[in-house]
Request: fold
Amino acid sequence: MLFPKQFHFLFIAFFLVLNLFAQDKGKVMPFKKIIIAIEKQHQVSFNYTGDLIEGLQIYPPKKSLSLDQKLQYLSKKTHLSFENIGNQFINIYKKEHQSSIICGYVFSSTDRKPLENANISLGKVQFSTDSNGYFEFEQKGTTAFLISHVGFTTRKIVANNSDGDNCLQILLEPEITALEEIKANAVLASGISKNTDGSFEIKPKKFGILPGLIEPDALQTMQQIPGVNSLDESVASINVRGGTHDQNLFLWNGIRMFQTGHFFGLISVFNPNLAHTISIYKNGSSAFYGESVSSVVAISSTLETPEKNSFSAGINMINADLYAKYNLSKKSYIEISARKSITDYIETPTYREYFDKVFQNTTITDFSQNQNIDYKSDKKFGFYDATLKYAQKIGNKDQLILDLITIKDNLEVFQSATVYNMNKSENNVLRQQNYGGNLSWKRNWNNFNTTKINIYNSSYELLGNQKTTNANQIVIQENTVTNNGINIENNHTINSKFSCNDGYQYNEIGITNLERVTNPDFYRRVKDVLRTHALILEGKYNDTLSRIYIKAGMRVNYTEKFKKYNLEPRLQASYGISKSMNLELLGELKSQNSQQIIDLQKDYFGIEKRRWIVSNNTTIPILKSRQLSLNLFYKQQDWLLGMENFYKKVSGITTSSQGFQNQLEFVKTTGDYEIIGTELLIQKRMNHFLTWLSYTYNNNNYHFTNYEFHSFPNNFELTHTISWAAIYEKNNFKIALGTKWSSGRPKTSPDFSQIDLSDPVLVYNKPNNTNLHIFSQVNISSTYKWETANGIQYKLGISILNILNRKNEISEYYRISSLTTSIEEVETFALQRTPNVSFRVSL
Reply:
């Protein structure tokens, strides 16, 4: 990528000339009082008729100005003419063509202070008020214009000929949002808030600290929200209210991401030092979000307000990264980020713990466990991600934004052993990558109508290549996804309380699955393509005085291949019972045409077993979900309490998408899961100290009507989950200690009464008839930031996961040992004690 050899800063000199028409700072005064003061100071006398200056008020001119300078100032601000006769008498009369000019001052109604940069919309012509709130324009007959300002209610003014005599004085009412009083600006940590539409919003640049986190990792942070879990500690296996990871929609600047984790799920692919806003919807998402039956995670790195040039670089015990933003002009900027693992050069304690966690019970570790002599292993692992953003404003109404992202993980493992004088070796390559691009055009037609068009593409590939010498065999597995489309969204502001959006979306997704084996030869390649169209209509009503918020939408999907229509209503409603208490109702119907399945647990060496597929409307139905939640939110002084009660049902799931490792592993059938739950959050802030406690209960069950057991617990059910954190933030020092406790996930035990141990064949009890042991983990993290005299900032962070080094079991299954032909229990454990240290420099 090419950059200028050096930065060129353009210094624009603002000449603060003593304007002949400048005035003393102060309040607006009656015109008559101003000319009386001038008469006394300059010993002159004004001649005028009373109706000429009646009700006229302006800012007074500076006392230090000469008499002529003051008269010029008064003439400009009032559009009156002043005739000076011998510096003794001054006649005042109307200017010719006075009616052709409309002037005015815009003030805040609360403190009567002038509003600078208030926007005046006169048809297609737009301009702003000056530092005194003053504006003027030429009148042509009856003129209607709009006045708007951030934080104030827009007013429509109709001016006629009589208004040309005096400048208008217009008061704007503040746009008071009563619901903001009960909106928590810090939920769980600084930089995390809950919006009136039910979503959680994370601002990484304002992020404080959470236990075990020293960087604002989007997918790690969201796991602190009640109802969001990862049963295997992976950001590639996030479960929201009982759903699987692939049922969540992950968007990065409008691009759907099919890969979300580095290091096979232990690190988020989204650079934590880049994202500017992260929105998380557990329920009640906008009708503009499709292709998910669970949550929506929308990450936007577009700046909300202009920022100066910046650069930062950091390193921790897994990767190094850099971030840079450079303003090319007043209307354009470029932003880049890049991150790469350091595991190519050094194996840190953090890397070793991650590696041991990821490769448990895979074909790679099975190879070493089955050999006990002359074993050799050479492994190479690395990852990187990079992003590019270019933003350009065109005129005052248009903006173009280009976003690009690339992600890649690569693993190479060579293993060899000599057994009974025979050499056995394997060469394994596993590659996972995701590319994406989005071109966005936004136009503000006026203050009330905008249009946004996105054209996007996302490409994903998972490739496994295994070579064995003793069997002279090559096994290649490949899963590729190509997703592209166009989104059109129109926003219309009807008035200060009501707005509506409408739009159209076209999406095409093509998925290819390939398997190729030599000795014996086998080849299979399956490609499926689905094209969908969606029409969206959404309306929002927000009455801040009565504390009523309603957002309702309808999404109509049409799938070309199946010639099927699907209606998806969405609802977000809240009512402020009082200034401290808010009642919220969220509901949605959603659908999804693609999902991840597991053909065999040993696919891709058992490390990454899931592959993307598209629905065929028969054996793989379109996923459909319905969800409803009733929430109560209370904030009083430094207390914050939240309670969410929800019901969720997802139909069309397949057994192969749920990761069964029991009698259902090879059963192909469809069904649904149904979950009822409650999520509680209690938070208290005391000066620099913040503590919170959350509890989640859910009852989550499968329903497979065509299977022997029609109903049994969901694989992802955690009946009880409790999290607690204590956070201290003062100045630039932050520290957080927290713990997470949950009941064990379901597992299926063998029925030994039905098994002949001399020639064992696995026979199971009812699916998920028992549970693993309780999961418990204590984490700590701390950061310190300081700044030098030349403005360079430094940040040091330290974290320890599982500081008590508890051995937490996260999965358990049974298999017949290939060596002893006996039944063996296979356990997978969470991370052991894992330290991490980070250091960052920002300019």
